[in-house]
Design goal:
This protein is of the alpha+beta class. It is 29% helix and 21% strand. It starts with 28 loop residues before the first helix and ends in an 18-residue tail after the last helix.
Length: 180
């Protein structure tokens, strides 16, 4: 049996140390300069997009085909009561557990209203444009949701809110607008 002396210290290699004491890796200065230039370019483009709208998507404004101002209130049975803001009459009562996308869209918009301290009295505007887009506008917070981006089921649920008497079929057949 071999015995070590009681005061002997054994040093182990550091984690990540190169074997055999090889020289450390040196990154060429031009490579570091190029990486720094790339980072600065990305930041400059991000700032330009944010402040000047460079590269931002914008919807081209078109003519309003039909529009309806609506207020949404919680019904006692967990449904949603939709009120026509122009006449202050009930347009439709949505059943509890139905219209999940509509509920989600309203939840997102009302969350912004609540954060801004805006009450429920301001109506939303549901607008069908001549180019076929269906958009829910919140003029109080300047936010909007383009419903036509989410598919036919969601379009139909909001399209029914544009009608005086909800039912099947489109409210207004959007005209054909050729893309230029």
């Amino acid at each position: 049996m071999s015995q070590q002396q009681p005061n002997t210290i054994v040093f182990e290699p550091e984690p990540g140390e190169r074997p055999g004491g090889a020289p450390p890796l040196i990154v060429p200065k031009p490579a570091l300069q190029m990486a720094g230039l790339l980072i600065l370019t990305v930041f400059a483009l991000a700032i330009a997009a944010r402040f000047f709208g460079f590269g931002a998507f914008r919807e081209v404004p078109t003519t309003i085909l039909i529009e309806r101002a609506l207020r949404f209130e919680d019904a006692p049975n967990q449904g949603i009561t939709v009120i026509d803001a122009a006449t202050n009459t009930v347009a439709v009562v949505l059943a509890p557990g139905s219209n999940g996308f509509l509920r989600g869209a309203l939840r997102a918009l009302t969350r912004s209203r609540h954060a801004a301290g805006i009450g429920k009295s301001e109506p939303f505007r549901l607008v069908r444009y001549t180019d076929g887009r269906l958009v829910l506008h919140d003029d109080a917070t300047k936010q909007q949701i383009t419903i036509t981006s989410f598919g036919p089921t969601q379009i139909e649920s909001f399209d029914n809110l544009l009608k005086e008497k909800p039912g099947p079929g489109p409210t207004v057949a959007p005209p054909f607008v050729p893309v230029q």
